[in-house]
C-alpha cells in the first residue's frame, strides 16, 4: 500500500491527550488543587461536588491567592511560581511542580478561577479554555484566597467520561483523598460537601493526625496506633507516622504514605511492611499505616508516571529494607511490653 503522509497533530489535540494522561478522574484534578492550596499556605479548604465531581468540582481556600498580573498566563502549560530552573527540581523541599495541573484541567473541563491576594482591593475572576484566558478578568467581591471551579470534566473526551465510575464511587475516591490529606495536614481544616447538602466530612484547623485518623477510619484503629519515628543519616531520610499495633488488623491493608508532603505509592515498601506484619497478625489480615517521609528531593524521582502517583527512590531497595526493619523492631518492642505487662 501507499504510505499515508505524516502530519503533525494540532496543538489542542496534543494538549488534550497529555491532559488526559495526567487527569484520569475528578479525584486526580482534586489532588493537584489540594496540593496547590496547601502550597499556598491555606488553613481552610472547602470542597463542594456535584455528581461525584463530574458535573462540578469546586475548591475554595484561604491561601495567599494569585496576583492579578498572573491571571493571563495562569493556565498555560508549564507556568509555575514554584520552579525556575531544572536544578530547582533537585533542591526544592516539596516536589511535583511542573506547572501542568491548571493547564491540564483547562484542556478537559470548563475552568473558572477567582482569587484575591492580601494586598489587592478586590478579587478577580476569569474563565479558561484550552490553556487560554477567555473573556475579561473581572473584578468582584471576595475574601482572600482562591476559588476554583471545574465543571463538566471530560466534556470533550466522551470515551474517558464513559469509563468513569458511578458518581457515588467517584465521590468515595474524593472523600478518601481528602481524608488522607487531612491526616497529613492537621493544621488545615477541611470540609467536603455535596452541593445543597450539609458538610459530609469536616476536620478542624490545628487538629492532630490522630484526630483525623479517628474521623476517617474510626476509633477502632485510632486507639491501636503506635507512634513511629525514624531518621537515617546515610540515606538522608526521616519518617514520622502512626502504625497499627499487633492487636489491630483489617482485611484490606491501609498504607498511606506521603513523601515530601505528596501522597504517593511505593508498592515495594507496602509489600515488604505487609510481610512483616503477617508474622504477627491472623492469616489474611493486614495493618494500617500512615507514614510521612521526608527525603532529599534529589533522591526521589516523581516523574515516573504522568500522574506522579508512583515514585522511585534512589537506593529504594536499601531504604525499603531499613524502614521495614525499623517497623519490625517497633512491633517487637510493643509486643514484648504487652507480654511484660501481662506478667506484672
Ligand atoms: P504548579 O503547582 O506545578 O506550579 P499548577 O498548574 O498546579 O502548577 O499551578 C500553577 C500556579 O498557579 C502555581 O505555581 C501557583 O502560583 C498558582 N496557584 C494555583 N493554585 C493556587 C492556589 N490555590 N493558591 C495560590 N496560587 C495558586
Ligand atoms: Mg500544582
DSSP summary, beta strand count: 15
Poorly predicted runs of 5 or more residues: 338-344
Topology-level CATH name of the largest domain: Heat Shock Protein 90
What is the N-to-C succession of helices and strands?
HHEEHHEEEEHHEEHHEEEEHEEEH
Supply the number of helical segments.
Answer: 10
Helix content: 25-40%
Q: Which cofactors or ions or other ligands sit in this model? A: adenosine-5'-diphosphate, magnesium ion
Strand order, sheet with most strands? 5-4-3-6-2-1-7-8
Structural class assignment: alpha+beta
CATH superfamily of the largest domain: Histidine kinase-like ATPase, C-terminal domain
Largest sheet: 8 strands, mixed
Mean pLDDT, to the nearest integer, reads 90
Total of domains? 2
The span between the termini is: 87 Å
CATH class identity of the largest domain? Alpha Beta
Integer-rounded radius of gyration: 22 Å
Q: Specify the CATH architecture of the largest domain.
A: 2-Layer Sandwich
Beta content:
25-35%
Name the overall outline. Answer: globular
Domain DNA mismatch repair protein S5: 213-332
Subcellular location: Nucleus
Keywords: DNA damage, DNA repair, Nucleus
Organism: Nicrophorus vespilloides
Summary of the model, kept short:
With 344 residues, this protein is of the alpha+beta class.
General description of the model:
By secondary structure, the protein is of the alpha+beta class. It folds into 2 domains: 11-202, Heat Shock Protein 90 (2-Layer Sandwich), CATH 3.30.565.10; 218-343, Ribosomal Protein S5, domain 2 (2-Layer Sandwich). It has 10 helices and 15 strands. An 8-stranded mixed β-sheet has the order 5-4-3-6-2-1-7-8. The longest helix has 28 residues, at 316-343. The structure holds adenosine-5'-diphosphate (ADP) and magnesium ion. The site of magnesium ion (MG) has 4 residues, from helix 2. This is DNA mismatch repair protein Mlh1 isoform X1. Belongs to the DNA mismatch repair MutL/HexB family. It comes from Nicrophorus vespilloides (Boreal carrion beetle). It is found in: Nucleus.
Amino acid at each position: 500500500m501507499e504510505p499515508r503522509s505524516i502530519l503533525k497533530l494540532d496543538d489542542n489535540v496534543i494538549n488534550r491527550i497529555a491532559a488526559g494522561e495526567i487527569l484520569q478522574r475528578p479525584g486526580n484534578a482534586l489532588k493537584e488543587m489540594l496540593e496547590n492550596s496547601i502550597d499556598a499556605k491555606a488553613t481552610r479548604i472547602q470542597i463542594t461536588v456535584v455528581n461525584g465531581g463530574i458535573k462540578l468540582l469546586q475548591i475554595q481556600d484561604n491561601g495567599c491567592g494569585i496576583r492579578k498580573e498572573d491571571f493571563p498566563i495562569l493556565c498555560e502549560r508549564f507556568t509555575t511560581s514554584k520552579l525556575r530552573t531544572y536544578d530547582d527540581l533537585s533542591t526544592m523541599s516539596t516536589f511535583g511542580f511542573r506547572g501542568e495541573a491548571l493547564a491540564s484541567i483547562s484542556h478537559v473541563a470548563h475552568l473558572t478561577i477567582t482569587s484575591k491576594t492580601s494586598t489587592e482591593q478586590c478579587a478577580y475572576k476569569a474563565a479558561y479554555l484550552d490553556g487560554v484566558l477567555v473573556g475579561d478578568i473581572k473584578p468582584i467581591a471576595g475574601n482572600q484566597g482562591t476559588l476554583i471551579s471545574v465543571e463538566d470534566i471530560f466534556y470533550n473526551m466522551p470515551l474517558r467520561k464513559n469509563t468513569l465510575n458511578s458518581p457515588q464511587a467517584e465521590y468515595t475516591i474524593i472523600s478518601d483523598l481528602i481524608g488522607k490529606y487531612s491526616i497529613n495536614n492537621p493544621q488545615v481544616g477541611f470540609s467536603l460537601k455535596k452541593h445543597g447538602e450539609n458538610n459530609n466530612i469536616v476536620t478542624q484547623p490545628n487538629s492532630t493526625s490522630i484526630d483525623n485518623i479517628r474521623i476517617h477510619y474510626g476509633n477502632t484503629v485510632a486507639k491501636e496506633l503506635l507512634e513511629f519515628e525514624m531518621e537515617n543519616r546515610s540515606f538522608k531520610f526521616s519518617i514520622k507516622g502512626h502504625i497499627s499495633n499487633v492487636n489491630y488488623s483489617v482485611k484490606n491493608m491501609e498504607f498511606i504514605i506521603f513523601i515530601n508532603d505528596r501522597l504517593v505509592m511505593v508498592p515495594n515498601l507496602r509489600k515488604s511492611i505487609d510481610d512483616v506484619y503477617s508474622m504477627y497478625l491472623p492469616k489474611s489480615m493486614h495493618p494500617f499505616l500512615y507514614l510521612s517521609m521526608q527525603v532529599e528531593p534529589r533522591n526521589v524521582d516523581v516523574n515516573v508516571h504522568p500522574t506522579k502517583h508512583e515514585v522511585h527512590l534512589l537506593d529504594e531497595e536499601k531504604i525499603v529494607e531499613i524502614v521495614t526493619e525499623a517497623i519490625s523492631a517497633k512491633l517487637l518492642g510493643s509486643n514484648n511490653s504487652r507480654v511484660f505487662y501481662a506478667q506484672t
